[in-house]
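Re: beginner question about structure tokens

> Can someone show what the tokenized structure looks like for a real chain? I only ever see the sequence side.

Sure, here's an example I had lying around. Input first:
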Amino acid sequence: MLTFAAPKNPEDLKSILAQSIADVASGQMNDRTARAIAGLGGALLRTFEMTNMAAELKKLQDMLVERESGICRRDQSAPKTNA
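And the corresponding structure tokens:
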């Protein structure tokens, strides 16, 4: 029975997939198991990517809110002139 720890990041997943490729090549893993690992690995990689994109989007949103609130504060504190 093939056992390994659940991958927690893309590097862990890369190691599992690399070992799976080696195991298939050496005959230690059958094609059906390899296809299952590859499919699950692809889904997990997309999940990692989406999680990373969501975190990056949150950072950008926070920066935008901070920038906009700074602009609003400057506008409110600027002296009014008659133009």
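Each token stands for a local structural state, so reading them left to right follows the chain. Helices lie at 10-26, 31-77.
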